[in-house]
Specification:
Layout (H helix, E strand, L loop, with lengths): L2 H13 L2 H8 L3 H15 L4 E4 L2 E4 L1 H28 L4 E7 L1 H8 L3 H7 L3 E7 L13 E4 L8 E15 L1 H7 L14 E3 L28 E3 L2 H9 L5 E4 H7 L3 E3 L7 E9 L6 H13 L6
Parallel strand pairs: 3-4, 3-5, 7-8
Antiparallel strand pairs: 1-2, 5-11, 6-9, 6-10, 6-11
Length: 296
């Protein structure tokens, strides 16, 4: 396979569109599209499903992306280590992200990063409110929404998907719902009125499958996704959670897998003035390597 076409394919799969990939590659949308079409013809498979909302990898495309991403990750790490040999990254690095993502996913992976870069002094600030990176309240952020400030650099890390989960103890007591309508007879845990999650229909689980009457009444409302996660773990009820929470917890069961909730794009963000900062660079490469595949 032509490495240059693989490079373009990787950029398209990562960006989710020909236009965004072209901007990063400094190529026109049509040029990117031609390269992908040529690659598909040479492999005799379709790599993307094309629809109005963008591009989605086919099964074969996902397999190729994972392989290419693994190669890119290894190259990125090799490049970072070569750069270290010239000037090893060192000094303070303050990272901020949400309480849930930081507590469940990020903190368990900082050990490896610190092991790779022992001269970087890492501190984490976990908060559901956004710190002002322009005012250097933090050096870098992992955010669930794209930055609104023009002087911030953003890198799309992944897409986070919501599905429905419950604890085994709850399902043993209450039974497994077979259809969305069955949720009428189950205890649901949802966002409270004070919550400000980065999704439009925050409590879609109260309405999915409802045929008559108003939305369902939840057993509990919580103003944070981490609180919802802990309530579900305890066996209180069923809730919509980002998939990474189930994978990290290892003790939740997916309910009604045919129901897919909203998705959230996750970004690595830092100030423009830190674009060439080595601490930022190695953190970005580390996160990209850990999130190989683009979905969480």
């Amino acid at each position: 396979m032509d490495w240059d076409k693989l490079r373009i394919f990787h950029a398209v799969a990562d960006a989710g569109s020909f236009t965004r990939a072209g901007e990063g590659l400094n190529l026109s949308q049509s040029a990117v599209g031609r390269q992908i079409s040529t690659l598909e013809e040479s492999l005799q498979v379709k790599l993307f499903h094309r629809h109005a909302r963008g591009l989605k990898l086919t099964e074969q495309g996902d397999r190729l992306f994972r392989t290419a991403h693994e190669v890119y990750g290894k190259l990125a790490m090799a490049e970072a280590r070569i750069a270290e040999s010239r000037e090893r990254p060192q000094g303070p690095l303050k990272i901020t992200t949400t309480v849930a993502f930081g507590s469940i996913w990020l903190t368990s992976r900082i050990k490896d990063f610190v092991g790779l870069y022992p001269d970087i002094e890492v501190s984490l600030v976990l908060a559901d409110s956004e710190l002002d990176l322009s005012m250097r309240e933090a050096d870098a952020a992992i955010r669930m929404t794209p930055p609104r400030q023009p002087d911030l650099v953003q890198r799309h890390l992944m897409t986070m998907y919501y599905h429905v989960y419950a604890a085994p103890r709850y399902l043993k007591e209450k039974g497994m719902p077979k259809t969305a309508e069955d949720l009428n007879n189950h205890q649901l845990v949802v966002y409270g009125e004070d919550a400000t999650p980065p999704i439009d229909n925050l409590n879609w689980l109260l309405e999915v499958g409802v045929k008559d009457g108003g939305p369902r009444k939840p057993i509990l409302r919580v103003n944070s996704i981490y609180g919802i996660f802990r309530a579900v773990q305890s066996g209180l009820g069923i809730a919509a959670l980002p998939d990474y929470m189930s994978r990290e917890a290892g003790n939740l069961v997916e309910v009604l897998p045919e129901i897919e909730g909203p998705s959230i794009d996750v970004y690595f963000v830092y100030p423009e003035e830190l674009r060439k900062n080595k601490r930022i660079g190695v953190l970005r490469d580390y996160l990209v390597d850990k999130l190989a595949g683009g979905n969480l």
